[in-house]
Amino acid sequence: MRISGAVLAASLAGWPPPDDWQRLRERLSGPLFRPGDPGYPEAKQGFFTMYDDRVPVAVVGAARVEDVQAAIGFAARHRLPVAARSGGHSYPGYSTVDGGIVVDLSRFSGIDVRPDGRAAIGAGARLGPIAATLAAHGRVLPAGSCETVGIAGLTLGGGVGLVDRKHGLTCDHLEAARIVTADGRVRTVSRAAEPDLFWALRGGGGGNFGIVTGFTFRTVPSADVATFKLTFPPGTQAALLAAWQEWLPGTPDELWSGVNIDAGTAITNGTFLGREARLKELLDDLVRRVGTPPAEREARVTDHLAAMRSFDDHEGRPGAVAARAAYVGTSRMLLRPVTDPAAVVEVLTRAPRVGTLIDSAGGAIARVGARETAFPHRSALASFQFLHGATPEDGGEAEARRALGAVRDGLGPEFGATGYVNYLDPEMPDWARAYYGVNLARLRAVARKYDPDGLFAFPQGLSGPRPIVHKGGS
């Protein structure tokens, strides 16, 4: 959230009063970072460097649930905006809030795998440590592939990943969540306890209903997984897209695949939970449909953790920890096969710095009704994510968003007014319906119930806007 310089100056000039900050500091078991404090410049950083100019009035390094309650209560009393930060990968930087309080959940990083296969995971845990811990117990939580992404934002937006056609979205494995709501109450929600809020937390987006501090997930047994990658020659992007969209619906749930397209790239890759011979048959069928043999073809059998790391390749170093970055993204959902793949590829490749990542859907995802959880895009064929660098060399953030907007809005009716909430785009037209579809009205009702005064409001949030009132400063 961006606020006026005058309001921010008032906050930093003495509102809330120093004594109030000191009382908050004394209540916390974790640290409180204020502008000018040692460690504040690092504490306020999210993943994206474009938002380093934002100046929260405080960062609460929450170490226990009571710290989250104290931060929410302080924000409510002083009418300050408040935002939770887990992995910090919010594309618009909503977890770094100007003139407000950031509740840093990184200390909620515990991962407890129980004998029955359930896992209690703190909201600050990241996907890499989660996958590694579960692998040591022979378990898997269907989730994304980027090791530094936080479990909270991923789950609350739905959670797509490498085995979701077989096992469903991350949110489909959520059994309970602990959340602190705007009234300061700690609630443990499930199908049996406050089911409306539990429903909303499964796809209703991060930051809308309170601050989640922990999750309980059902996990699945780990199994060998084959990874594959087919690199086709330049100029075959349209042929690959046409073949892939026809091939995908006939593939078994055990196969997940993606397509990477840009001006010079035509790649499909993925995972398969089955026999190598069967995977070969499936890939041979795809190649026949493309009509051009791949320039490179790779396939190998590994475990889930290694497969995940192979898709998390930073600067050619699979599994390496990503440095902070500068890029922006947007999305559309493919609702049905495109009628003119060449026209779609022309839109995708007209801006040379835009890259497109297509993730297959269907399978177990589609066997859950659109209204059963808050995630609405159950019948989509695939999700499309569009990325563009936002460094000065790329032309900066404004140029990146202009280029992405042209791609996002230049696609055909097969995509509709859709988008994936975990790829938030501050310029998405009709964003609320794009992200929440048939579930929008119910989600807004849940947000009003648990956050009636809009404490957790942000530019693309479901709570109504809340005026920020400062009683001091100038």
TrEMBL record:
One Pfam family this sequence matches: BBE
SUPFAM superfamilies: FAD-binding/transporter-associated domain-like
Alphabetical keyword list: FAD, Flavoprotein, Oxidoreductase
The protein, known as: FAD-binding PCMH-type domain-containing protein
MF (Gene Ontology): FAD binding; oxidoreductase activity
Residues covered by the FAD-binding PCMH-type domain: 52-222
Originating species: Amycolatopsis mediterranei (strain S699) (Nocardia mediterranei)
PROSITE patterns the record matches: FAD_PCMH, OX2_COVAL_FAD
Protein family according to the UniProt entry: Belongs to the oxygen-dependent FAD-linked oxidoreductase family.
InterPro entries: BBE, FAD-bd_PCMH, FAD-bd_PCMH-like_sf, FAD-bd_PCMH_sub1, FAD-bd_PCMH_sub2, FAD-linked_Oxidoreductase, Oxid_FAD_bind_N, Oxy_OxRdtase_FAD_BS
Gene3D superfamilies: 3.30.465.10, 3.40.462.20, Uridine Diphospho-n-acetylenolpyruvylglucosamine Reductase, domain 2
